């Protein structure tokens, strides 16, 4: 009887840990998507602001 209770407790603990890690992974994915959107927006703003300027550097000399 004790082995069954310990087995059930371990299964519940493992499933709870899995659900928590799944939740953390979803939060990390949302943060990554937000960072990606911010990067795309910053890139578009920089392109609109500096896109028409001539490029200078060693390659043009």
Descriptive report:
There is one protein chain. The protein is mostly helical and 61 residues long. The protein has a domain of 29 residues. Helices cover 80% and strands 0% of the residues. It contains one helix and no strands.
List keywords for this structure.
mainly alpha; rod-shaped; single chain; 0% strand; 61 residues
Uncertain regions: pLDDT < 50 for 5+ in a row?
Answer: none
Helix content: over 70%
Which percent band covers the strand fraction? under 5%
Mean pLDDT equals: 90
Give the helix tally: 1
For the sheet with most strands, the description reads: none
Question: What is the gist of this entry?
Answer:
With 61 residues, this protein is mostly helical. The chain contains 1 helix and no strands.
Strand and helix map with partners:
Layout: H1 2-50
């Amino acid at each position: 009887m004790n082995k069954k209770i310990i087995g059930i407790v371990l299964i519940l603990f493992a499933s709870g840990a899995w659900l928590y890690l799944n939740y953390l992974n979803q939060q990390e994915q949302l943060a990554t998507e937000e960072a990606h959107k911010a990067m795309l927006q910053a890139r578009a703003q920089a392109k609109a602001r500096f896109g028409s300027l001539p490029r200078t550097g060693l390659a043009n000399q």
